[in-house]
Amino acid sequence: MKAFLTALCFLAVLSSAVAQNPQAELTAKAGLNQQLNAQVPLNLPFRDEHGTAVRLGNYFGVNPLVLVLAYYQCPNLCTLVLNALLQTAQDLQFDVGKQYQILIVSIDPHESPALAAAKKQIYIQRYGRPGTEDGWHFLTGDEAAVRQLAQSIGYRFVYDPQTRQFAHPSVITVLTPVGKVSRYFAGIEYPPNEVRLALVEASNSHIGSLTDQLFLLCFHYNPTSGKYGLVVTRVIQFGGLSTVLVLGTLIILMIRRESSAGS
After folding, report:
1. What is the pTM for the complete model shown?
2. Cβ proximity of 218 and 238 under 8 Å
3. pLDDT digits over 20-51, tens only?
4. What is 29-206's CATH number?
């Protein structure tokens, strides 16, 4: 009898696990595979918040870009991601539309430009800096274009018909002016200093200060942690170069002093 009850309990647990498998399998399909230096397809067709047909490449060419894949009717995670990005943008000295662009692309092919326009209005008003209209973009597109863009940056998402929602990772991606993946920031917090450095690096130091550029000489991006860490070799090289320059300057000064004394 005891063995029978044990077997019955085991079957009950197994049945429950099987019943939950479809949901678990859907969730497992969502995630992120970092593909640094991957090229996004610039010829992909989308529609902007006005309903105008555009190409992804329209938003590249001059400045680095922060790309966010989300959907406008997302009840939870997407709003957290966009709000966190807004907070980071407000903390940055760089201006959206001047030093960099922000591009939000809906992963839901059924969402309309009207939804994109409403979302844009909310965020540019909250950002509150002039010129943002030309720098913060909200796009919609068909499933094929969205899937191709997502695959190019390693972003995996899946629709759950039970909840009528998308399972997807929370991440923002920094792209270079030519559309190559430069950095990822996962989660729902994006440290302004880290994002600033990522934008400077993605721009090939065309934006940012001399301090930013010197910092990047000694610090290296760690894709696992999503942060910049000190590179000891570079520090030693930089220190050695500084020592040589100081010694060289001292020797020149001594030679000039001796020459002056001799004359």
Report:
1. 0.74
2. yes
3. 556 566 667 789 999 999 999 999 999 999 99
4. 3.40.30.10
